[in-house]
Amino acid sequence: xxxxxxxxxxxxxxxxxxxxxxxxxxxxxxxxxxxxxxxxxxxxxxxxxxxxxxxxxxxxxxxxxxxxxxxxxxxxxxxxxxxxxxxxxxxxxxxxxxxxxxxxxxxxxxxxxxxxxxxxxxxxxxxxxxxxxxxxxxxxxxxxxxxxxxxxxxxxxxxxxxxxxxxxxxxxxxxxxxxxxxxxxxxxxxxxxxx
Length: 195
Known about the structure:
The chain has helices at about 1-10, 20-35, 40-50, 55, 185, 190-195, and strands at about 75-80, 85-90, 95, 100-105, 110-115, 120-125, 130-140, 150, 155-160, 170-175, 180. The strands form two sheets. Strands 3, 4, 5, 6, 7, 8, 9, 10 and 11 form a nine-stranded antiparallel β-sheet that branches. Strands 1-2 form a two-stranded antiparallel sheet. By secondary structure, it is an alpha+beta fold.
């Protein structure tokens, strides 16, 4: 009888998902703290204050979308557009790679948009925890669909030059709400800070 009471008590402490309330509450608490984090430095303060685990960090866009990124050919910020030859704000970074190079999800999330547009060519958008989104463009091939759950390091596409592009490369962005964030500090965050 004693074991039956213990078993029932444990069952009552578990939500329908099977996760203990403590981990669910922690996830909600982390989400709340990251709402105001727009820069990598603000995010780092949340990570440190919450003592986030690697598992928790994987819910955010914290790795490079390609293996062995040798260089960034076009940085975040103002630049002269390589095709239009006018000064425009570049909302992401461009990583040159050969056509067909695998592109990976930079954090756990859900595919919220996938499609084609004249500027970006084939693209994918993934929504992550804390209101963050990662965006991948100029893809030669996509391997996920809208609504798919993806895991960090899962291959989602291949590098290409679709849309308006001067060569094979990945255009990568991080967005939060209507703001574009500089992806540079985010890309190596997990490996540079926590492994």
